Amino acid sequence: MAGPLEGVCVIELAVAIQGPAVGFFFSAMGADVIKVEPPMGDASRYHRGVNNTLPATALGSQFVAMNKGKRSVSVDLKTELGLKVMERLLASADVFVSNYRASALARVGLELEEVTKRYPRLVVGHVNGFGPKGPEADKAMLDGAAQARGGITGLSGAGGEVPMPPGATVADHAGAMQTALACVTALCARAQTGRGQLVQTSSLGAQLWLQMWELQHSFMTGVPLTREGSHHPNLKAPYGVYMTSDDVPIMYVAAMTDESWTAFWLFVDMPEALLLEQWDTPGKRIGVAGSDDGLAEIRDLMTTAIALYTMEEWEAFFSTEPEIIWERVRNHEEVRTDPQNVANDYVVDIDLPGSGKTSTVGTLMAFSDTPTEAAGPPPPLGEHTEEVMAALGFDSAEIKSVRDHSDAEKEAMLIALLGDN
Fold this sequence. Notes:
Number of helices: 17
Order of helices and strands: EHEHEHEHHEHHEHHEEHHHHEHHEEHH
Structural class: alpha/beta
Radius of gyration: 26 Å
Helix content: 25-40%
Distance between the termini: 43 Å
Number of strands: 11
CATH topology of the largest domain: Rossmann fold
Strand content: 5-15%
Number of domains: 2
Strand order of the largest sheet: 3-2-1-4-5-6
Low-confidence stretches: none
């Protein structure tokens, strides 16, 4: 697969979202990503989620999203031969990525610091829930816990109501982004020093990175920001979400010129808004003053104004005012078909075994000299075990032993889950 990281070999020992999303970044960039799975595979293969009427054989959406373009090797790391396969993989790799807890890695002979010593050119990327240090370094984590701990949930939702977590797994994805960036940075350092290293980050740390401005403001002023519902907590301005007359949400950001601000209020026949001095410059309209003076009044006027017309009428008006920054709030189907997403290959089609063609998130970065290709479908469990083991020098008897062991483990687990009928 072509791309800027073609020739880089990544070994992924990871489950769910945060670790596999790191592997998918490398896969999308053209690296050879070998996903090491236990005999039953990454559990996200089987996660069906809601509104799912696809065949029982269809891969889980979480697994599809995070594992496109990889190769799958299925071995049991609790066996001597399985660990031997893993060790040879690491000896041949450039990057090792995992989101297993450090204690779990140590139990199978992959203690992080020891791995870096054993393979001095290897970049080891480890991401966990709450960071590599401190009393809760090995604490279990799921996405919502990191969102809560990092403060992003506390700023989401309406004031005076129960906090409302964002409608996406932002902690896991942000942790993955930071880990991928750290690994690539370590590869750059290796090009200079010849040495790999251990790089670590966490979902918790990534939540802070997502809120650097908001947290910095609270730290500097000594006054924590509070929930503002459909408005940003640090923008005392008209900026926010409003509903049209046909109940379509619009994100109104700002009128960047006085002429466009005037045109807006004349369009809704509310010229009295133009007399409000608190909003008579572009800077004031994006909340530079940070004052509550006139805030409730302008937001009430904006609510009334947006509710006067349908979405179609607003689209027609905004098309004549390019200096007004706004967007219609999209649902997932609208995101899938958005011409801007399609044109940039942010959304592409892929064929999946068991369920057929579907849309998926594509490669989000464009490279002029080393263009990427769309990643292929995620691999069936253990599809590449034999070819990878053969390339690593294992003989046919060892390959058969791993295959037979994996098949037996899988069968035993299925019986335990489903019974033997």
